[in-house]
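Second attempt. The first submission of Glutamate synthase subunit beta had a stray character pasted in from the spreadsheet, which I only caught after the job came back as garbage. Lesson logged: always re-copy from the clean sequence file. Corrected sequence (489 aa) follows.
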Amino acid sequence: MGKATGFIEYDRIQTPVRKPKERVRDWNEYSLPLPEKDLTIQAARCMDCGVPFCSIGMEIKNGVSGCPLHNLIPEWNDAVYRGEWKEALELLLKTNNFPEFTGRICPAPCEGSCTVAISEPAVGIKSIEKAIIDRGFAEGWIKPNPPKTRTGKKVAIIGSGPAGLACADQLNQAGHQVTVFEKSDRIGGLLMYGIPTMKLEKESVERRVELMRAEGIEFVTGMECGKDISADELKKTYDCLVLATGASKPREVSIPGREALGIHLAVPYLTQSIQDLLSGNAEQTLSAKGKNVLIIGGGDTGADCVATALRQGAESIVQLGRRGKPVSERAAGNPWPEYPLVFQMDYAHEEADAVYGHDPREYFVSPVEFLKDEANQLTGLKTIQVSRDESTGRYTEVPGTERIYRAEMVLIAAGFAGATDDIFTNFDVNQTDRHTIDAAKGFYRSSSERVFACGDARNGQSLVVTAIAEGRETAREVDFYLMGETFLP
Ligand SMILES: Cc1cc2nc3c(=O)[nH]c(=O)nc-3n(C[C@H](O)[C@H](O)[C@H](O)COP(=O)(O)OP(=O)(O)OC[C@H]3O[C@@H](n4cnc5c(N)ncnc54)[C@H](O)[C@@H]3O)c2cc1C
Ligand code: SF4
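This time the job returned cleanly.
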């Protein structure tokens, strides 16, 4: 432990961010690095607790608590405090294949369960993680490290999001010949197309893919498995298949007027914006410029739509959510070390507040009908207020609270309803009642022989850190299946 009294002497220092009014003029990352002296202070705040709750990675009541990758947080905090950055990097890479992603976009369940957070703001774990990996790349410490020997076994990974990439990385290190198939034109899943550049610049995804290619992994883009190549053909060539195809089936808003022009699903909208940026299109194809924009869905995907529409020059933005406004401090039913369900200003909400003068979120609102003109063009949305019965969790409409919002663009960010239907039929795998691939956690075997499943396709929409953890665990199961033993962690 670096400094025994650090948590008493020093305060938390937040990751610095660029000023909202400045950053909305570009598409670059909004967060900035912490100077080394501040990182040392943050690391000194770590108490090196007997039981490091920050790394337990357990599902408690309100979701995951602690780091699902069981990152060795107290150990690398100590190394950073001592100025031993290379040692910190080695410790970090033992458990996390891609800290350059999690250090930027993880909601940091580790910090919600940090012991310091019982009475003080948590240790800035995520900032330290980002600094360690960024330094590793800047110093040239991260180099291709192909396996010394090959096993002669071949594995096909279907889907190149964080789950598929982590699984591929681990299996390649174990000596198997790995091919990653991706139906899109670029590798990365939602890391590439979905999560906006302001949160994660795409150069870091491409840098990691190049590193993995140099270590011997083959990447095939523009190949929709099950359609362009059948499951049977894949099974003839590969010893095992891993389905890491995500959970991209959108939850629809099926109300009258849905066919109006100007209503878009969130992920295709965000994807188009990123594709325009990457291909150098000066204009955004699907632009909110000059429009009154309504976003249906109060979650993080909706927030990413707020930030994107803002940069495109929307006239106004309102984000509608069915749930109520979160409380400002942990409720009695949400104690430490659970993930704290408290009100937060996300980067997108800070930006909207700076540009329009108010938080764009409105609560307890349910959509009733899309309004349109004779040309089928969207003109607005009729809504109604709802209230929640705390004992049953049910929402009911409050009579007389209808309201009409003017809108020329609506973005639907109402969540996801599991994996896409084609996966179950094309790969002949059973599904759960949540419309995900039926493969028990810890084993990851589907109902089809030699076919494994991981990430959102198995687990439902989750987090990048959870997807990486599932990819790693699945690699261990595949390795054991192929070799009869495994040395993978
Ligand atoms: C807009 C948005 C923002 C998000 N922001 C965050 C965030 O800030 N932090 C966070 O932790 N999590 C975030 N998430 C959640 C996170 O991105 C996902 O949980 C994670 O990416 C899941 O990883 P995955 O590998 O299972 O699937 P995905 O990332 O969805 O990747 C699946 C891949 O499989 C490919 N595929 C599907 N079918 C086939 C096929 N038949 N053949 C070949 N390829 C196929 C898809 O094209 C896709 O590339 C966000 C999600 C969304 C939608
Ligand atoms: S991956 Fe996420 S939960 Fe784990 S240490 Fe990093 S920020 Fe925390």
